[in-house]
Amino acid sequence: MAAIRLIISFTAGRNFSQNDDCGRFPGGTDAEFTMGMKKFYITTAIDYANGKPHLGHAYEKVLTDVIARSRRMMGEDVHFLTGLDEHGQKVQQAAEKRGIEPIGLCDEAAVDFRGLCRDLEISNDDFIRTTEERHKNVVRGILQKLHDEGRIYRAEYTGYYSARIEQFLRERDMVDGEWPAEYGEVVEITESNYFFKLSQYQEWLIGFLNDHPDFIFPRFRRNQVLEFLREPLNDLCVSRPVERLSWGIPLPFDENYVTYVWFDALVNYISAVGYGEERFEDCWPADFHVIGKDILVPPHSVYWPIMLKAAGIPLPKSLLVHGWWLKSGRKMAKSTGNVVDPLDLIGQFGPDAFRYFVTREMNVGQDSNFSIELFLSRYNSDLANDLGNLVSRTLNMIGRYCDGSVPAASIEEEPEKELRALWEATKRSSAELYAEMQFHTALEKTFTFVRAINRYAEIRAPWKLSKSGEAEDRKRLETALATMAEGVRLSVALLKPVMPGTAQRVYALLGLEEVREWEKDLAWSPVLSGRNVSAPEILFPRPKSAE
Asked: Whole-prediction pTM value?
């Protein structure tokens, strides 16, 4: 519990009503945060199986992983879920086009998305596929329960349908009498289907959102949901006839139909942690569902809360909604051809450089621009010049002037006092910023400290002190190298949630085990004194090109 109190002590009494309307950090009250009675449960959206991983997929996983890793380092027991959404019309159509079975297409996608997690060093505890029996059984059980209680009924429907987004549409979805391009081909159909009484819960949902302003983070996203709820909700069609779509979970009460893909996919959040079993309470309710803004309304903010309410299941504590990556001011999409393959960047620059860039550039909840020029600027300036050069020069001078053993600091003059004071401020503010999901600002402050260590080295100039025969200068030399080494250790400990590989590598160079807990690892201490360091390594090699 001590590690958890560390972060609470930094946030106690703080006013979380901010000018950007982000509000206090979500995920439960402070009392719930310190109880330690359940795991900290965090999920990504599950990726759709009819496409390849792209920058948006990679960013969402990195963002969620940074939260998961930081919470573990605060002393919490974390359960982190990601996975694959494998049913639906688009998967069936893509498989038919290639002349293979849908499960074959899904198996290929599972390899791709598991590979993305591996290449990005994502620390997920589980990877769910919606074709697994553990998931299908829960979906069918909830459908049967709702049907038995009269919350699902059969009716004939005439209306417009978009195969691209696999949703029925209303005329109000038109813009100037035309269907927006994102709907693709829209056709008018008449068919018998099963419907979930979504509309009965509209007033309850409006009241819930008004009573729980932190349910959606950042808060301004809640206004989009409330705007959507100004119009009356239609009941939700939760089935598709088998003759039109066979690739889905059969309805338990009528196997001539399969389950609507969103009613199927959203259930993954509870099926993966054992809904219906005693262990379910170890994780549920989820602390965060991390999703993109494009699937906030209506799936996660309307369908999912109402599905849970109707089934008598507690709601998640918060939806953490991130923005889009833009290129030349436009959303990246396959249709526009401006997508970025994250595997290309990871392969050339390594996972930590990629993780650092997307975390540093994206203010959670806002859109952000991507360009290879901006990526290279961050890589060369922050990583290669500031951090990489600092580690190299520190190890090099310890090897040259102290026979490779970290000396002890024996004096504390103004340069040391200033750097220590800056560290205490950096540690305190960064911990607050991590808790508030302001990772980009936390990284900015961490690298301000890294640059301060480099400035400290210039002030102390160990290479000049080494030439002096004075005893006091020898003390200053040893103190300078001890201070620089300790600053390096603290910096990479703070960076571990974002750059886990780099943190572990630098710790090994300093003769230490890996970073474990922030409460101990963020305290300035003489832990390095007397340890033998390794020869310098190039942590961030200069790229030959970015093509």
From this structure: 0.91
